[in-house]
Amino acid sequence: MIREINWEEIMRWDEKYLIHTWASAQEYHGLPIAATEGNYLIMPDGTRLLDFFNQLYCVNAGQRNPYINARIKEALDRYGFLWDAYTSDYKATAAKLIIEDLLGKDGWAKKVRFANTGGEAVELACIFARHFTGKPVIATREYSYHGYSAGAGSVTAMLPAKSSISKAEPGVVQSVPGAVVSPTMVVPAPFCYRCSIGHTYPGCKKKGEKLPCILATERLIRNKGLDQVGAIITETIHGASTIHPPAEYLPQLRQLTKELGIVWITDEILVGCGRTGSWFAYQNYGVVPDIMTVAKGIVNSQIPASACIVNEEIAAFIDGHRWNHVSTFSGHPIAMAGIVATLEYMLEHNLPEKARISGKYLGKRLHELEQKHKSIGLIAGSGQLWQVELVKDRKTGEPIIAADRNSDFSGDQSKWPSKVVMYKAIEKGVLIGGFVPNTLRVGASLEVTNEEIDQAIAALDYALDFVDAMI
Ligand SMILES: Cc1ncc(COP(=O)(O)O)c(C=O)c1O
Q: Under CATH, which number does the domain 7-64+351-468 receive?
């Protein structure tokens, strides 16, 4: 029996008692959602919003997936809570599914440790890498997002992700004092569309030579000192700031980490679990990492859970120690049941392959919009993870908002092309947009239908007329 909900009262409580994200209290407007289903969010008045944000690219097997729901309900009838010192069948099975069934054929992954959030999995990855190498510095890349907790936040280079913007003094961006606590360094991102070190792809490729961004990474790490730098962390594909690397980049980065003797941590919290049309995005590049983090899609986000997976050498090192880091909820039986159910469902229905196929259709439909809308400068992606760059001038690629990915997110965001698209597409019942000013990040669940893609493209077509009119 669902109780009657007084949504006016709910919205009042929401505004009055909650600390919100992305908006000051004065700016905040709540969006009430009464239920979710498949690719839709359902508002209290019954309006159905087609979600091409996929709620932060989390719900790979669709909202309220019936199989996963049923398995979680079953687990709730068996377990209340066990902390990590005890074995549940769900925790051991989740580990076996990840190491053998998903990663077995790649041969690198040996052990997994579970946590609760993506940021915590990144914390684990950094702790393991620092312990294993005995070196403090972890290199990260421009525009990266790895979480907001102290360690994960320290390897996050996306400018505004750890700051607040004063409303009293507009434009004043305040980083949290003391928030960057662990030693890191920043190296170039493989953002060929606007290369931050002044090169042009593919002209920058020279036969038998490393890409300039790889050479710069090498120079910066060597300059910091190989006695200091033990690892590099990458998003396999930048998620929050949405950058698809060129084909050569990750193979060359992997090679470089081997030459320098440093650990490669790849963060697949957003791009893993089928999103790009492969189980994991690194598989698209013919390389394997030393450490990988996953969250979001691994449990269809029906319950919080994340994992840090390590290779044989690091697993052997960890096995030689008493591992005293513990989180109360790591390995929670209900979360582990969620992982088991999600992976069983995804394996049985081969969701990565479905994403690969629907991604081809989505890509084709996006490219059709390119003919019609002069503001589209670049379309890149695969599966259910697409990037659309909106520009002043297609020939030069000049961004509409000059700060682009170096924006500190202060000022009036309603003029950002990504926000204009978001507000306009909502008029057509579709959620679509992005986190950085000039870039759309487009993708739904991995089981999205062609009809739903058509609906999203029609909304985008409508919204892009307004961006075209801005330039
Ligand atoms: C690539 C990446 N790493 C880490 C995180 C942090 O995960 P969480 O928000 O669950 O802490 C995110 C979140 O969006 C992410 O996209």
A: 3.90.1150.10
Distance 158 CA to ligand 1 centre (A): 12
Atom of ligand 1 nearest to the CA of 117: 10
Domain ranges of the chain: 7-64+351-468, 66-348
Confidence of residue 144 (pLDDT cuts 50, 70, 90): very high
Q: Is the CB of 267 under 6 A from ligand 1?
A: yes
Q: Please name the residue ranges forming H helices in 5-115.
A: 7-17, 54-57, 66-76, 89-96
Ligand 1 pocket, mutate which of 56, 269, 282 (most atoms under 8 A from CB):
269
Give residue 396 CA to ligand 1 midpoint distance, Å: 32
Tell how strand 163-165 and strand 173-175 pair up.
antiparallel
- Band (pLDDT 50/70/90 cuts) for residue 2 is low
- Looking at every residue in the chain, the average pLDDT score rounds to 95
Ligand 1 geometric centre to CA of 465 (Å): 32
Q: Is the pLDDT of residue 29 over 60?
A: yes
| Ligand 1 neighbourhood includes 123 CB (under 6 angstroms) | no
Residue 146 Cβ contacting ligand 1 at under 6 Å: yes
Q: Which amino acid is at 206?
A: K
Q: How many of the other CB atoms lie within 10 Å of CB of 398?
A: 15
Contact 172, 145 (CB under 8 A): no
List of residues 6+ apart from 176 with CB closer than 8 A: 162, 163, 164
Record: fold of 66-348: Aspartate Aminotransferase; domain 2 (3.40.640)
Q: Band of the pLDDT at 170, cuts 50, 70, 90?
A: low
What tens digit of pLDDT does each residue of 270-286 get?
A: 999 999 999 999 999 99
Ligand 1 atom showing the smallest separation from residue 122 Cα: 4
